[in-house]
């Protein structure tokens, strides 16, 4: 490096590091991990690589679905527990409901007697 070029070089490296950090946050830092096999292999082997790619995609989908199912199961268990909690009523709530039922029955009897 010649004198006077150090600042620009360091600045360029700093920008590259920041860009890589942003890409990592977005999950796009290593696009070479998702290699498509169709272009770089001989024609007589292409079908093998395509089959392998499909198999890998199916495996990743199955892993995702298993994780999603586990999350759904955990949420249903939580919702069942909360529903049980709401089903249990305090004695005060039970007394209020009984009072409302009796009040409604009395109102019905009065309407029947009046008509």
TrEMBL record:
Top-level taxonomic group: Eukaryota
Any Gene Ontology CC annotation: proteasome complex
Biased composition (Basic and acidic residues): 94-103
Keywords: Proteasome
Span list, region Disordered: 81-115
Protein name (database record): Proteasome activator complex subunit 3
Species this protein is from: Platysternon megacephalum
């Amino acid at each position: 490096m010649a004198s006077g070029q150090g600042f620009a070089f360091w600045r360029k490296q700093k920008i590259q590091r920041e860009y890589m950090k942003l890409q990592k946050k977005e999950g796009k830092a290593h696009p070479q991990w998702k290699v498509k096999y169709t272009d770089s292999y001989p024609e007589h082997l292409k079908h093998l690589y395509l089959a392998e790619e499909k198999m890998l995609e199916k495996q990743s989908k199955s892993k995702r679905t298993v994780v999603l199912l586990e999350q759904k199961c955990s949420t249903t268990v939580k919702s069942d527990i909360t529903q049980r909690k709401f089903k249990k009523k305090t004695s005060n709530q039970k007394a209020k409901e009984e009072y409302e039922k009796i009040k409604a029955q009395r109102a019905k009897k009065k309407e029947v007697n009046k008509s």
